Amino acid sequence: MVAQNLVFFFCCFFFISVFSEEHGVEGLGRGDKRLFVFGDSYADTGNNRIALASSWKFPYGITFPGKPAGRFSDGRVSTDFIAGYLGMKTPIPYRWRKQLAGRVKYGLNFAYGGTGVFDTSASYPNMTTQIHFLQQLINDSVYNKRGLKASLAFVSASGNDYANYIAMNGSTAGFPAFISSVVRQLTVSLRRIHGLGVGKIAVGSLPPLGCLPANTAQTSFQRCDPTQNALVDLHNLLLLQAVTNLNNQTNSTSFFILDFHGAFSTVLNQTQPHQGSPKFEKPLQACCMGVSAAFSCGSVDENGVKKYTLCSNPKSKFFWDTLHPTQEGWRAAFSTPAFQNSFNQLFQN
Fold first, then answer.
1. Domain chopping of the chain, boundaries
2. Catalytic residue, candidates 78, 254, 324, 335
3. In sequence order, what E strands does the chain have?
4. Which of 98, 151, 224, 261 is least surrounded, with the fewest CB atoms within 10 Å of its CB?
5. Which pLDDT band holds residue 171 (cuts at 50, 70, 90)?
6. What is the pLDDT of residues 292-327, one digit of tens each?
7. Does 324 participate in catalysis according to the annotation?
């Protein structure tokens, strides 16, 4: 029992130290706004379990907070930057809501690395389940209608459903019909969040998945995969139509799209830096990569020998691993006109 108490104390101390370091840009007069986050590893700040996730292994987190802390990057991810734009502290992961109850007032992050709109694994709570978590907290009077109306939900759906489809089917055959089903279910999720009383719901457009290092490796990180990017375009077209319809059906401007596709494309295609953004070296290549297809960033063998390579400076790379941006990559994407123009809709309506 003593040993268990010590482990519990250590875990609580560790997470308090991690989360106390996270701050948004304070003093922007956003009132009692809260941020609720749903989705996947592009937004997860620590929900995925330590034993299962690479995000809890070195060298993840080496830029921030200086150690692995559950983010799928060397540092901050999209949730952190969005919280900063809102003038808020980053909402804590849902799984630590009891240990860090004082932080629940800022909202919660329900996002879970590896999850999708549909089931992608028996171990991962899909988006429907994540929204159910918020529903339960509302039922328990943790949040009230006034607080929800003044709040923002950020929804990240960055391609796990599609990766799972290819893994299960071995090809992209039948993909257009599946894309339609994903967007339909995503629309159901957006409508449900709105029905719970959240005032604004922002959903990220799908980034150019064909440009991820996992897909550019076959061309030695020189070219994006045009077939996958064409399918991404279909997803984003259907998503735009869905969000437009939701606003019309609710007679509101509650729903809007954060242009991650435009932001990523701007940075990856730039020939010159813009607005202080760096020009990334080999932008289609990751900083941290497995030594072969059998290994990934953070992998070690039975003797603890590293089975990955790590670049000398994560700030020089847009991508951290074969799927996720570095902190500097996220910073550059969020500084683009594509992102800022879409995010400004929150304050214009």
1. 29-281+327-348
2. 324
3. 35-38, 92-93, 107-109, 152-155, 200-204, 255-258, 288-290, 308-310
4. 98
5. confident
6. 888 999 999 999 999 999 999 999 999 999 999 999
7. yes
